[in-house]
Design goal:
- The chain has 108 residues and is of the alpha+beta class.
- Strands 1-2-3-4 form a four-stranded mixed sheet, covered by helices on one side.
- Strand 3, helix 3 and strand 4 form a beta-alpha-beta unit.
Length: 108
């Protein structure tokens, strides 16, 4: 949970924890959908800060769907959405240094 969401969420994740994000006007939540069968395979967020927008809580749930390029596609779509919808010149992304899988994805 910490790796995915930072300290804001606690295990086990509850509906109340998610509702906090849904009701935060500075957060935009996205479902990641596999276009071949229209199943939801992940989650991502944009958090609006004063000068930048922050990409975060990016997760492909099922490990069987990882390594298939979804992360790279999600990053491109989040950046495209962020720069086209908000008057911001910079995007930001934070990741724990030990989360090597995410770091490799973000580098791509």
């Amino acid at each position: 949970m910490l790796q995915f969401a930072g300290p804001m969420y606690r295990f086990p994740l509850t509906a109340d924890q998610l509702k906090e994000d849904l009701h935060d006007p500075k957060r935009i939540l996205f479902k990641i959908v596999d276009q071949t069968d229209h199943t939801i395979i992940g989650h991502a967020q944009i958090f609006l800060k004063e000068e930048v927008f922050l990409l975060g809580r990016i997760l492909i749930w099922d490990e069987n769907n990882r390594g298939k390029g979804y992360g790279k596609k999600v990053m491109k779509e989040l950046l495209k959405y962020g720069f086209s919808h908000f008057d911001k010149k910079t995007a930001e992304l934070n990741v724990y240094d030990w989360n090597t899988g995410a770091i490799e994805c973000y580098k791509k």
